[in-house]
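FIELD: query
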Amino acid sequence: MEKQLNPNEEPKHPLDLYRVIYPIAKLALDHKYNRHITGAENILDTPAIYAANHIRAADSLLLTETYTEETGLPLRFVVKQGYAEGTGIDDEGKWGRVCKFVVDHTLQIPVAREGNDRANYQKFEVGVGQTLERGDSLAIHPEATRSNNGRLYKFKAGAARLAIANKVPIVPVGLVYDTHTNSRKVDVAISFGQPIFPDELEHPPYTLIPGLKNKAEYVTQTLENRVARQTGMSQTGIFAVLRKLRKLDNNE
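FIELD: result
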């Protein structure tokens, strides 16, 4: 049974227009996509991190819609810094103002995908902590960019580190699109896998792994393997090249 957001509920943040924007986005998404959900019992109504593969720009919207439909709660997404800066979905301004407005007013969490600016990353970590402390869940694409070949790129360890540091569960999510049907809508299968709970890290095999970095890598590989099983995607074993850099390479 679908759980409804309460439009009259006082937002927890003065900029939060999630309850206003959500039904509009849901109407648009349902016009274009048929969602087929499995593993809904793994969607938690307590703060957690959802780690999903990345194929299309719509992935985050469809995952957000599904989470809110099941729980009646908002889901915040980790998004690339460009969305918050107005560079749009193509890094050249496409839908730039719309993306910036949505990011600003639904409390999405921007992160720089390039460079090694520790100060910016610490600001990002603070934002994640505040989101979880507020009682919200968040989602992230550990591949860091969209796959353009139908294969699953190696997950980065950031999602696992955030889950471990904030002592919240992390849930693997798989998205698969079927573009071969004759329907005017696109079928998309969204699967929620078995969560990894914080107390699991207090038992083998995690207790046998030395150091936080190694533990995060182990959790990350576990997540990637589960998403691969959920989607049927083959694993590349390599990190994806960011789309902007890929575009520059192709123009040379």
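FIELD: remark
The longest strand covers residues 170-178.
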